[in-house]
Amino acid sequence: MMQYAVCAFDVRFVPSNFTGKERDTESGNDYFFARYYSSAMGRFLSPDWAAKAWPVPYAKLDDPQTLNLYGYLRNNPLGGVDADGHCGKGPNDPPCSDVKVEAKVVEQPKMVVNEKQADSNSGTGTQKTGVRGVVQDTITAGGKPVADTKVSESNAVTLTVNGSARQAPVDQGTASTNNAGQLNDRIGVQAPADPTQDKSFISAISSAPITYTSTQTLTFTAPDGAACSATSTRTLTNIGPDGQGSANYTLTTTQPVVKPVTPNE
To answer: What CATH number does domain 99-260 carry, 2.60.98, 3.40.50, 2.60.40, 3.30.1890?
Structure first.
């Protein structure tokens, strides 16, 4: 006769309730990692918070429901699932969705000779001669400036002179936003300052048809901890309607496209 061994297992079931979260049997509240939710009251028991100081975490000024730091998914529990107890993000609220980056030309291009080319946020640079303008990026989250935040910059650059592609130096590095969430970026066609070459270089870039295009990507961390990127394209050119070059340059920029940074980026 065959015999079967019977094993005793200590099986413990964790009570899983609202959106699959664990329920504390003593208090009757659901554990959402960042804080507890009371299904009896239909609200969180503590206000939402962010890792970085933020007056009203995750709020969107055009959506009054986001000003309620105790509500679940803007008081719309059928609108999605709050995964971690922060900011009520559902399917319609992916990472970086409340982050905006505005780019504008704050200084049109001009000729400069032996000018120190330092980003206003870093305070360092070298002496250069050529043409340059300034684009300013303003980063906000939930309508609030993303201030004093480290930003990394990468660029893909193309330069054409008289219709032919030329190699162009690529500037990239890191800086920090100011209290208004702003970064200034110089865009130009320049060379290291040289008293023996400056005059001829200025003459050359004042007559040859030139187009300089930089596709810039800024990478930074939003106040809620999400890694975000913003990509825009800046174009500097002196080509007029007649197809000829001149000393009159224009600088334009597209508006940055913000998206979450994926692990393989």
So the answer is: 2.60.40
